[in-house]
């Protein structure tokens, strides 16, 4: 069986060809849309593996012609443009799989083998293009995994459980699934179950009849009815009372609800997406969360990473929030490279939400068009003082002492302070963790890859660190 590989990077093409040949395929290679179409007109291929950006254009934009010529041929798309937009565009072509670069070459080879074995698989043909203004930002490997999971649930109604710390953007993922999926013409209804009093949650979800309880002066439609035909997003599902969990499970199993105080059962058509920042399995063991409800919701889990595990995305997020702030009437700014690097080194315990609020504060308070690191430091210190006053007082004393002794030249304070304090800080963290880089990165609140890069640049060898 033959596979057509369309890839404009010769080294990548060589590696992929070797991996596919090891799977028993013969491989034809080209690097352009024109050559791809010529080969497809002359030969029959078991699968197409194609990059997005080719020497003569966008490989995704022309997939329609490939579909017309070979509707049963599975397509695997590769891309270095690692955004949700690219992942969704790939999914909209009916591609069997999408691989952001860099990818696992063995996984790619296995996927091609699986695609050929399931050549009848066809997804998403005839769907219109996704809406503009996609809500998620980031090209890190962690976010690529999220994007791929999103694209796999766009054309079905499987229940999704989004797991992640507070502030990581769980509702944005739910909105993306709705806006890009086949229910986008229906309503998206979000309800924070933690914010509703326990005695009112059933009324909010299922509605109530007039006179059902004191204060029920009229019939009230619940969130299930309001979301019918669309998506119901149940945020903080781990905080839902047990009795409400029971009624929710019954509604999910039957597709019908009954208003509080009512007798009539109402059929509802909703897609359920739930989210929580809590670990539900210990709650199941403790009897505070129903195991059967967990399995009903957890059909497709999506784990949303904390910001500290995708620090490479912070500059793009910061620029994105500056644009949003400008669109809301705040002054328009840009960030210097050093300011972006400084932001990327922060732990952001409040995740994306904390970063967004910080960037808005920067946009409001900084007067210069270009935000330099020197303008970022004072605001970071203000936040640190509010969180850990004792440690910051110690840091303040150390910085003042250093300034008095070193007297750096004007305009060089930040660079020299960073050089003075970063190396001893990393050495102390490595000594504390006996040279373990993973534990040192966790202690510092930074990404392990960031730590490893800085250690190389500072010529620090963790293997030589002793406690």
Salient structural properties:
alpha/beta, Rossmann fold, 16 strands, Helicase, Ruva Protein, domain 3, 20 helices, five-stranded parallel β-sheet, 4 domains, single chain, 467 residues
What report would you give on this structure?
Helix content is 47%, strand content 13%. The protein has 467 residues and is an alpha/beta fold. The chain folds into four domains: 2-117, 3-Layer(aba) Sandwich (Rossmann fold), CATH 3.40.50.2300; 153-303, P-loop containing nucleotide triphosphate hydrolases (Rossmann fold, 3-Layer(aba) Sandwich); 307-387, Helicase, Ruva Protein, domain 3, CATH 1.10.8; 397-467, Arc Repressor Mutant, subunit A (Orthogonal Bundle). The protein has a five-stranded parallel sheet with strand order 2-1-3-6-7, with helices on both faces. Helix 1 packs across helix 5 and helix 4 packs parallel to helix 6 (141-152). It is globular, with a radius of gyration of 27 Å. The model is unreliable at 120-133 and 385-394 (pLDDT under 50).
CATH superfamily of the largest domain: P-loop containing nucleotide triphosphate hydrolases
Q: What fold name goes in the CATH topology slot of the largest domain? A: Rossmann fold
Average pLDDT score:
83
Structural class: alpha/beta
Please count the beta strands (DSSP E, at least 2 residues each). Answer: 16
Total number of helical segments? 20
Helix content: 40-55%
Note poorly predicted spans: 120-133, 385-394
Name of the level-1 CATH class of the largest domain: Alpha Beta
CATH architecture title of the largest domain: 3-Layer(aba) Sandwich
Q: Tell me the span between the first and last alpha carbons.
A: 58 Å
**How much β-strand is present in the residues?**
5-15%
- Structurally, the number of domains stands at 4
Largest sheet: 5 strands, parallel
């Amino acid at each position: 069986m033959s596979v057509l590989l369309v890839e404009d990077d010769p080294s990548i093409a060589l590696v992929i060809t070797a991996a596919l040949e090891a799977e028993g395929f013969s491989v034809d290679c080209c690097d352009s849309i024109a050559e791809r179409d010529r080969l497809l007109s002359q030969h029959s291929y078991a699968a197409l593996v194609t990059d997005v950006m080719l020497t003569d254009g966008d490989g995704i934009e022309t997939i329609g012609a490939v579909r017309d010529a070979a509707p049963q041929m599975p397509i695997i798309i590769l891309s270095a443009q690692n955004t949700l937009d690219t992942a969704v565009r790939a999914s909209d072509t009916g591609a069997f799989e999408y691989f952001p670069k860099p990818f696992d070459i063995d996984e790619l080879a296995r996927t091609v083998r699986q695609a050929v074995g399931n050549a009848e698989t066809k997804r998403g043909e005839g769907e219109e293009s996704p809406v503009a203004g996609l809500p998620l930002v980031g090209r890190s490997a962690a976010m690529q995994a999220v994007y791929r999971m999103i694209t796999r649930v766009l054309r079905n109604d499987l229940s999704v459980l989004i797991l992640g710390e507070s502030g990581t953007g769980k509702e944005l993922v739910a909105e993306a699934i709705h806006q890009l999926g086949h229910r986008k013409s229906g309503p998206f209804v979000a309800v924070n179950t933690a914010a509703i009093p326990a005695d009112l949650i059933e009324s909010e979800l299922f509605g109530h009849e007039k006179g059902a309880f004191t204060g029920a002066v009229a019939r009230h439609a619940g969130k299930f009815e309001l979301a019918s035909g669309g998506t119901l997003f149940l945020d903080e599902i781990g905080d839902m009372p047990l009795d409400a969990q029971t009624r929710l499970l019954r509604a999910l199993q039957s597709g019908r609800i009954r208003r509080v105080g009512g007798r009539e059962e109402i059929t509802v058509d909703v897609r359920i997406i739930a989210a929580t920042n809590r670990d539900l399995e210990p709650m199941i063991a403790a009897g505070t969360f129903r195991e059967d409800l967990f399995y009903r919701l957890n059909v497709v889990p999506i784990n949303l990473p904390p910001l500290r595990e995708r620090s490479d995305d912070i500059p793009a997020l910061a620029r994105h929030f500056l644009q949003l702030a400008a669109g809301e009437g705040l002054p328009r700014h840009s960030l210097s490279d050093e300011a972006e690097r400084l932001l990327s080194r922060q732990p952001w315990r409040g995740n994306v939400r904390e970063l967004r609020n910080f960037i808005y504060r920067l946009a409001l308070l900084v007067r210069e068009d270009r935000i330099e690191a020197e303008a970022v430091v004072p605001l970071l210190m203000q936040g640190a003082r509010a969180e850990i006053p004792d440690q910051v007082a110690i840091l303040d004393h150390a910085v003042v002492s250093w300034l008095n002794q070193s007297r750096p030249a004007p305009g060089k304070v930040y660079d020299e302070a960073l050089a003075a304090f970063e190396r001893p800080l990393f050495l102390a963290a490595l000594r504390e963790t006996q040279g373990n880089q993973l534990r040192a990165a966790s202690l510092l609140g930074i990404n392990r890859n960031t730590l490893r890069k800085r250690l190389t640049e500072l010529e620090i060898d963790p293997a030589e660190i002793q406690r």
